[in-house]
């Protein structure tokens, strides 16, 4: 029962975590919808036809329209912009500082969108369109589609939460069945004990009465009749008791067999759920594109290393990597080519580390490597070997050879260090490597 209670606790924790994720993404969705409303208001007054489209979009956004309706309105707005621009070009708007902040905010939201195989391409497309957005209508279209993605992810989290709740309900039902079986078994044992005691008391009473009658009988024929009558009653009583025992044993065997089957089913379900939960937990900490750890996993591991540093003092080196000119590769050859570069570079990092080391992708083209038990000098040698291995990779896109290089900033964790201070040192070293010509490893 303690193991079952532990499983219930784990599923409740999983359910609470999914509810937190759902709440967080609903907040992001609300922020995106507020941004849509502000962009619609900012774009008013350019052209009456555009004003009509912006009013429709703003109204749909206020009533939390679904993804299909927002998509149709965004497409209609795009068509209107093209049509109006063909007749009377929309005046070019020079983005002020506030507009730049808006674009940066949208870019930050896009970077934080949940990435999966289904929406990865859409996210990259939105980021590319954001870089070339020329007016508020284009920004509104981007934000609308981003809000749709957040809404879809929120709905997915809701479905997962309901599924987890259903699983918890099934486990609770199985535990209830086991408790009922134990209660019935306890009641059956008590009933058997009382029946056995009653049977023993009856037999003893019959023997005593028979002894008394035998002792007081003077006629042999009468004695024989009394003995036979007593023996028949005792035999019937024993036969009835045996019948009740056999019937009780059959019922008990049936319930035991049923409970064994139930327990076997529960064990199979528990094993399946444990495997699924472990797989989902592992997937939640992996970058889906490269297969290495993600930013969340890095933050947890780095916090552990920072907290452990004052107690023990093994050296620990942090290597912060960035792929040189990665945006140029994406823009020139497409995001599929960029994905291949990310996967190959991540494979180089994984091939260079040991079992206790750590590799994570923490941003678009940024990676971090933690080398345990190595001083900065040794870590620098390994970093240069990895840098050379990446430079030796051969990529051909559209028949053109493409040279890929990486830059690295290194630092060693200090006693009583903080995560922010250590990361800032590595980031500063990476900045110097970039500005010194790239394809370099620089120590903090």
Note down, in words, how this protein is organized.
With 444 residues, this protein is α+β, with helices and mostly antiparallel strands. The chain has 2 domains: 1-284, no CATH class; 295-443, Reverse transcriptase/Diguanylate cyclase domain (Alpha-Beta Plaits, 2-Layer Sandwich). It is 73% helix and 8% strand. The chain contains 12 helices and 7 strands. Helix 1 (2-42) runs antiparallel to helix 2. The longest helix is centred in the middle third of the chain and has 81 residues, at 136-216. The protein starts with a helix and ends with a strand.
List the quaternary state of the chains. Answer: single chain
- Uncertain runs with pLDDT below 50, 5 residues or more? 92-98
Roughly what fraction of the amino acids lie in strands?
5-15%
Distance between the termini: 54 Å
Number of domains: 2
| Structural class category | alpha+beta
How many distinct helices?
12
Mean pLDDT across the residues is 77
Q: Outline, from the CA principal axes?
A: elongated
Record the strand order, biggest sheet: 2-3-1-6-7
Q: Report the helical percentage.
A: over 70%
* Strand elements, count: 7
Largest sheet: 5 strands, mixed
Which sequence of SSEs, written as H and E, runs from N to C? HHHHHHHHEHHEEHEEEHE
Rg, Å, rounded: 38 Å
List keywords for this structure.
444 residues, alpha+beta, 12 helices, 7 strands
Quick take:
With 444 residues, this protein is an alpha+beta fold. 73% of the residues lie in helices and 8% in strands. It has helices at residues 2-42, 48-62, 67-87, 97-112, 120-131, 136-216, 220-283, 295-308, 326-333, 335-352, 376-391, 419-435, and strands at 316-323, 358-361, 366-372, 395-397, 400-402, 406-412, 441-443.
């Amino acid at each position: 029962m303690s193991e079952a209670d532990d499983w219930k606790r784990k599923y409740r924790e999983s359910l609470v975590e999914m509810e937190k994720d759902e709440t967080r993404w609903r907040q992001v969705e609300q922020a995106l919808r507020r941004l849509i409303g502000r962009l619609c208001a900012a774009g008013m007054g350019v052209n009456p036809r555009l004003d009509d489209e912006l009013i429709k979009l703003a109204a749909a956004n206020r009533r939390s329209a679904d993804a299909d309706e927002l998509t149709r309105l965004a497409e209609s707005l795009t068509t209107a912009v093209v049509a109006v621009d063909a007749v009377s070009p929309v005046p070019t708007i020079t983005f002020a500082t506030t507009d730049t902040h808006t674009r940066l905010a949208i870019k930050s939201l896009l970077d934080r969108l949940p990435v999966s195989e289904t929406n990865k391409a859409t996210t990259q497309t939105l980021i590319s369109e954001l870089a070339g957005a020329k007016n508020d209508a284009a920004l509104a279209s981007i934000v609308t589609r981003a809000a749709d993605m957040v809404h879809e992810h929120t709905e997915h989290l809701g479905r997962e939460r309901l599924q987890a709740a259903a699983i918890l309900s099934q486990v609770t039902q199985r535990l209830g069945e086991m408790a009922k079986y134990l209660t019935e078994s306890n009641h059956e044992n008590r009933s058997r004990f009382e029946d056995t005691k009653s049977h023993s008391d009856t037999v003893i009473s019959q023997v005593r009465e028979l002894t008394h009658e035998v002792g007081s009988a003077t006629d042999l024929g009468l004695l024989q009749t009394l003995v036979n009558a007593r023996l028949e009653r005792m035999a019937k009583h024993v036969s009835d008791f045996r019948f009740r025992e056999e019937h009780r044993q059959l019922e008990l065997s049936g319930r035991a067999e049923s409970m064994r089957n139930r327990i076997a089913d529960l064990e199979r379900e528990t094993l399946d759920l444990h495997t699924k939960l472990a797989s989902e937990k592992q997937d939640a900490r992996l970058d889906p594109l490269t297969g290495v750890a993600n930013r969340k996993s890095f933050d947890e591991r780095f916090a552990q290393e920072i907290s452990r540093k004052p107690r023990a003092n093994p050296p620990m080196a942090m290597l912060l990597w960035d792929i040189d000119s990665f945006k140029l590769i994406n823009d020139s050859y497409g995001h599929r080519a960029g994905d291949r570069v990310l996967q190959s570079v991540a494979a180089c990092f994984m091939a260079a580390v040991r079992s206790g080391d750590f590799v994570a992708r923490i941003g678009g083209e940024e990676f971090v490597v933690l080398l345990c038990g190595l001083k900065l000098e040794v870590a620098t040698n390994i970093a240069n070997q990895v840098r050379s291995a990446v430079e030796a990779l051969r990529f051909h896109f559209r028949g053109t050879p493409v040279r890929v290089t990486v830059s690295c900033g290194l630092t060693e964790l200090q006693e009583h260090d903080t995560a922010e201070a250590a990361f800032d040192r590595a980031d500063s070293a990476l900045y110097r490597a970039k500005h010194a010509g790239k394809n370099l490893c620089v120590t903090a």
